[in-house]
Amino acid sequence: MTVMLRSLETAVPETVMKQPQVRDAFAAQPDLTRLGTRLVNTAFDSSGIDTRYTVVKELTLDSESEHPVFFDRGEMRILSPSTKTRNKVYAEEGTKLFIEAGRKALAAATGIEAADVTHVVTVSCTGFFAPGPDYKVVRALDLAPSVQRYHLGFMGCYAAFPALRSAKAFCEADPDAVVLVISAELCSLHVRSSNNPDTIVGSSLFADGAAAAIVTARDLPLDGPALSLDHFETVLTPVGEESMAWNIGDEGFEMVLGTYVPHIIDEHIVGALEPLLAHDETLKGMAYRDIEHWGIHPGGRSILDKVEAKLDLTEEQLVPARETLRQFGNMSSATVMFVLKHILEQPSSGGNGRICSMAFGPGLTVETALFTKVGA
């Protein structure tokens, strides 16, 4: 039995944040020290990001709101709304992204109709409400009320892989199952001005976006590229619990993204890959760069630099991750799905079609996956 990802679609909000413009706004905040201002400029300029997307229209910095909530353009001041205020926006705008991405994935899956969906798995760490996004998707897409629903919450940037692993397990248990997986994150809701280096790095990286996939083992014709979901593994590094975390504060969620994270990944990435690659005899002893595609979660530019150097990968193998970071920023759990979509849309090179993929998150947790790209 081969479990296949039959479609993979993405969605982003309409509002675009241009990195230089946002940098200047953050650097102009009155609460910043001289060191804080220098850190803002350095973090934004070295991020590898050109544009990001946000559900917060005020963050375009181009129009002034009569009653600003997140950004007062008249005073060029980043505001600090309560967690309740931020979460209300999440419930309204996040629902739209979940539904848009899910609808696109369903429409792109040849041979699959709404009535065929048996499971919905939603993923998010940037807000909460109930009945949640899993419920909203079932209602909005007119799925059967008997659909089994699961929500993976507050896991962080690696959570798309547990969702895909769950989808694979559902399909292996029931060969007729059709699983809709949707990840949607509204990270920009939690940006804040601060002199803390970790907070500054987060403000320079995080953005909003959603991705959705249809996963099934049904024997259906392929009219485009798809992914075989081959193997998944999880590894907890022996250090790093305090270096990457996601906490709930009175004025939004508080991201801890320590500057030591790239070094932890550099030290432990080879060990994290060992249990994954051990699943396939053909990969034993193979140089990492001989695996054709690498779908790396772009947690930040320095993380990608460490991965490329440590595994001796080519610049071309990091293009999907770097381009995703450049165009969209870090959208937490949805981001690696954008990277995989980029790989799916690349013209076939006649290579082996294997994809080794990785995502990193709180713990420090390293989620890894092996896929095979099949079809046109």
Characterize the largest beta sheet: strand count, sense, and whether it forms a barrel.
Answer: 9 strands, mixed
How far apart, in Å, are the first and last alpha carbons? 21 Å
> Strand order across the biggest sheet?
7-6-8-9-1-10-15-14-13
User: If you compute it from the alpha carbons, what radius of gyration comes out, rounded to the nearest whole angstrom?
Assistant: 20 Å
Helix content: 25-40%
Number of strands: 15
Given helix and strand content, the structural type is alpha+beta
Q: Assess the beta-strand content as a share of residues.
A: 25-35%
Instruction: State the helix count.
Output: 10
Instruction: Write the element-wise H/E pattern from the N-terminal end onward.
Output: EEHHEEEHEHEHEHEEEEHEHHHEE
Shape: globular
Mean model confidence by pLDDT: 93
Which oligomeric form is depicted? Answer: single chain
- Identify low-pLDDT runs: none
Report on the architecture of this protein.
- The protein is an alpha+beta fold and 376 residues long.
- The chain contains 10 helices and 15 strands.
- The chain has helices at 19-27, 34-45, 83-108, 133-140, 160-173, 197-205, 261-277, 301-310, 319-328, 335-345; strands at 4-11, 15-18, 51-54, 71-72, 77-78, 119-124, 148-153, 178-186, 208-216, 226-236, 244-249, 252-257, 293-296, 354-361, 365-374.
- Strands 7-6-8-9-1-10-15-14-13 form a 9-stranded mixed β-sheet, with helices on both faces. Strands 2-3 form a two-stranded antiparallel sheet. The chain has a two-stranded antiparallel sheet with strand order 4-5.
- Helix 2 packs parallel to helix 6 (197-205), helix 7 (261-277) packs across helix 8 (301-310) and helix 9 (319-328) crosses helix 10.
- The longest helix has 26 residues, at 83-108.
- It is globular.
